[in-house]
């Protein structure tokens, strides 16, 4: 007769057997408060995640984009949580921030709100462009609704981000 109790998992692997995970498996998410200091939390988290997956060369661009994404979205619904998703697929890092601010149904209000969001994302847009990536925002399909703002950074472009910044220096 089998035991009604679930068995323990196998013993933890010893330190030396712990290999770094494959970048393509990177799928991490984090919920932060809708507050100005959350940009710093998110930046630190993304840096740590990239380091674990040995994607450190992407960190300067990815950390800056993350900070800008949070900074541009938290004040649209202050106090409401922001959800950050970090994924790596097909040689590109995908960063998404879900905020609770739903698109407006009134066209003029919607246009005004979009323009405000775009203006807040100017610095992020410049970094993404320098990396040869793409970005955008739209209605979130998550159960909580709101808006999803996303940026995709190709590995080669993001890894060259600081090098290209450095070439501007005398
Ligand atoms: Zn609005």
Q: Can you identify the CATH class?
A: Alpha Beta
Structural class: alpha+beta
Main sheet summary: 5 strands, antiparallel
End-to-end C-alpha gap:
77 Å
- Assembly level: single chain
Give the helix proportion (percent range).
Answer: 25-40%
The total beta strand count reads 5
- Give the DSSP E fraction (strand runs of 2 or more residues): 15-25%
Stretches where pLDDT falls below 50 for ≥5 residues? none
Characterization of the model:
InterPro entries: HATPase_C_sf. Residues 1-20 are annotated as: Disordered. Residues 1-13 have a biased composition (Pro residues). With 170 residues, the protein is α+β, with helices and mostly antiparallel strands. The protein has a single domain (27-164), classed as Heat Shock Protein 90, CATH 3.30.565.10. It has 6 helices and 5 strands; from the N terminus they run E-H-H-E-E-H-H-E-E-H-H. The protein has helices at 38-52, 59-73, 107-120, 122-130, 155-159, 161-166; strands at 27-32, 82-89, 92-99, 134-139, 147-154. A hairpin with a 2-residue loop joins strand 2 and strand 3. It is globular and about 65 Å long. The model has no long low-confidence stretch (mean pLDDT 90). Zinc ion binds at residues 101, 104, 113.
